[in-house]
Structure formats: C-alpha cells, structure tokens
C-alpha cells in the first residue's frame, strides 16, 4: 500500500483521516479547520476532484485563469473538477470547518482534450449522480479499508476519469462491448493466486491486452461481479487458508497478503467475515 505525502497538508491544520495512492489515482480524506478567508490557485497536470463531504453548502467562488486573468467567477458546488493543465483560483470568506475528499485521477485521452474554459459552470459544480456515488464509495474505503481497497480506489479513479469526460462532452455512455475471453479470465485468476495481491488494474489489463476501463466493464459482464470484489474474495480465501496454519502469526499472514500493517489486515478481515483473524482461528479450532 503506497501512501500519499501529506506533510504539506498538515501544516495548514488539516487532520488526515485516510489517504491512499493506487495506480494513477491518489485520494486524501481530511477535516479542514475553519478559516477567516481562503485565496488559492491550483494548476495540475492531471484531473483532480474536490468533494465536500460535510452536509453544508460550499461558500467558495472560483474562476479559471486565462491569459487576461479576468475570467467570470461562479459559485462552487459540493463536487468540483479541476481539469488538467487548467489554472483555477478559489476564494471564500468565513469558511466553516469542513470535511473534504481530494483526489487526483488518471489522465485519459478524452479528459486531456476537454476545453474546460467553455464549461466553467459544469466543472466547478459537477451535477452527476454516478460521480457522487463513486466519491462516496471512495470515502468509505478510506475510512474503513478492506481487502481490495487499493483495487477499488484505482478502479474508481479510472471510472471517474471516463465518466467526467463524458459528462463534460455531454456524451452518453458508449455501447457496452462483450465480456472477457476464457483465457483472459484464467490469466487474471492465475496472476492473483500467485500472490500478486498488490497488482494494479492497469497491470491486469496489460495481461489481457485491453484497456483498464474495458477490463472493468468486461469483467463485470463475464462474472456479474466487480473486479475489486473478486480480488477481495480471492485474497480472503487465501487468508482463511493461511489462518489454518498455526505456525504463522497474524503479522506473518498480513505480510503475505501485502498489508502494510497487521491492524489493516485485521480490519479488512473483520469487515468481510464479521470476525477478527484471531477469533476466526479460535472458531476453526473449536470445529476440529
């Protein structure tokens, strides 16, 4: 599990609640203190989203900065998109304490071609139920990580990048293509069962010779479940098997399954089974 560098955030008094980098997606959930005013300029190479999780209206106003720096200002919504290579200035007064999810997304070809300046209001106030649902799932994973949190975060980032490109272009979703071939499903299964628990969706897509977005759609069509759910189930099956070996400590098993800390493994296992690894091991002893 690769964690984002957040020392720069802490100096502003932000309390980091959860953070994760998975593939090309980076996400940080933080509580921000109240402020008399804010005046910040942002410019990034990849698309980024800010999601106001707190149940309150966003008091900020923003504008894209062009060569004249006299762009029109609009009120920010609870979901704000900053497209790649687009400079934005955000200002507000009397800002209350709030909880924000900030995430950086993969740069896909469609997103890189968006003319953001022509869609100011749509970028700074994203009104899309699918985007909001995906962001809420991301918040849930950061607050309570599970067996496939890395895969879920990476997949959500890929999904959001494509969904936002469609949203800004006013395109409907492209027609869904067929599922995966049997050899592609076997290749995914073999790769996971060899212990590659921390592999990225992009890695699996390369194994199958397709794009990451196509892989996620096609896998669901073939199996009626998400790729993240499948990875979690395979990883959990391996955990159950390892827990039967009394010579292995909980820390040993956590390392085998690529968890950074044994506490993370315990949380993920309890979330999936309702039992801690120790309780599960004791339950299995009682059955024999």
TrEMBL record:
The UniProt record lists the keyword Electron transport: no
Gene3D superfamilies with a match to the protein in the record: Homeodomain-like
Matches recorded under SUPFAM superfamilies: Homeodomain-like
Domain HTH araC/xylS-type: 182-283
Pfam families in alphabetical order: HTH_18
Keywords: DNA-binding, Transcription, Transcription regulation
UniProt-recorded Gene Ontology molecular function terms: DNA-binding transcription factor activity; sequence-specific DNA binding
Organism: Caenibius tardaugens NBRC 16725
Name of the protein described by the UniProt record: HTH araC/xylS-type domain-containing protein
Protein's UniProt keywords contain DNA repair: no
Top-level taxon of the source organism: Bacteria
Lineage start: Bacteria, Pseudomonadati, Pseudomonadota, Alphaproteobacteria, Sphingomonadales
């Amino acid at each position: 599990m690769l964690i984002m560098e957040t020392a720069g955030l802490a100096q502003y008094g932000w309390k980091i609640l959860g953070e994760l980098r998975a593939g090309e997606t980076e996400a940080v959930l933080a509580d921000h203190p109240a402020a008399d005013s804010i005046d910040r300029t942002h410019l990034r190479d990849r698309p980024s989203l800010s999601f106001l999780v707190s149940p309150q209206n966003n008091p900020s106003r923003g504008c894209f900065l062009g060569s004249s720096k006299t762009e029109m200002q609009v009120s920010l919504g609870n979901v704000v998109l900053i497209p790649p290579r687009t400079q934005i200035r955000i200002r507000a007064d009397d800002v209350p304490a709030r909880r924000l999810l900030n995430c950086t997304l993969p740069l896909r070809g469609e997103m890189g071609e968006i003319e953001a300046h022509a869609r100011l209001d749509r970028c700074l106030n994203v009104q899309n139920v699918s985007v909001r649902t995906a962001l809420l799932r991301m918040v849930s994973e950061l607050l309570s990580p599970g067996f496939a949190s890395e895969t879920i975060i990476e997949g959500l980032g890929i999904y959001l990048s494509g969904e936002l490109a469609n949203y800004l272009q006013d395109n409907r979703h492209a027609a869904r293509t067929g599922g995966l071939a049997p050899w592609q499903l076997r290749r995914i299964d073999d790769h996971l069962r060899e212990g590659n628990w921390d592999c990225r969706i992009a890695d699996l897509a390369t194994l199958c010779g397709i794009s990451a977005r196509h892989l996620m759609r096609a896998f669901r069509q073939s199996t009626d479940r998400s790729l993240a759910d499948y990875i979690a189930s395979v990883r959990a099956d391996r955990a159950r098997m390892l827990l039967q070996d009394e010579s292995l400590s909980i820390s040993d098993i956590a390392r085998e399954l690529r968890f950074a800390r044994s506490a993370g493994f315990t949380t993920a296992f309890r979330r999936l089974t309702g039992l801690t690894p120790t309780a599960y091991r004791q339950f299995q002893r009682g059955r024999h």
